[in-house]
Amino acid sequence: MPQPDEEQDGALGRLGQRLDDFDAKRVRQVKSYGESGAGEGYRLLAVLIGGVIVGLGLGWLFDTLAHTSPFGLIGGLLIGTGASVYMIARSATRTSGLAEHTKPVSAPVADQKSAVFEDDNDG
Fold first, then answer.
1. What are phi and psi of 71, to 5 degrees?
2. Cβ neighbour number for residue 121 with a 10 Å cutoff
3. 70: which residues sit within 8 A by CB, 6+ positions away?
4. Neighbours of 55 (CB within 10 A)
5. Most Cβ neighbours (<10 Å): which of 36, 75, 86, 113?
């Protein structure tokens, strides 16, 4: 009765292939950070400008309520700038950590071109 064993092996092979395909679709795709450089830069610029503006606004509010004319504004500016620089540094560290753990999809273009030129010189 070799036929049932062969059918079971074939069915198990197909099931294994379907499970592998399902797992491949389910895995979260890691985006390439080299492609979204401009968007990341604009986001970091917005964090910097927003932190400074919020700091100035809170400093102005403190000056208005406490009647300490320039000191609240200066303090708010320094605190807002410091907070935004901290947030930018944290985001850049997280982005570089994610970039280190991703695998390159293919060889760099420069390596592919040099391989083509080496092949042309050989023959």
1. -70, -40
2. 6
3. 63
4. 22
5. 75
Is the Cα torsion angle 33, 38, 43, 49 positive or negative in sign?
positive
Statement: the pTM of the whole predicted model exceeds 0.70: no
| 8 A C-beta contact, residue 99 and residue 33 | yes
pLDDT, tens digit (0-9, with 9 covering 90-100), for 60-84: 999 999 988 889 999 999 999 999 9
pLDDT per residue as tens digits for the range 34-59: 556 778 888 899 999 999 999 999 99
Q: For residue 12, is it within any domain?
A: no
CA-nearest of 73, 83, 91, 114 to 33 is 91
Any domain includes 21: no
Give the chain's domain count. 1
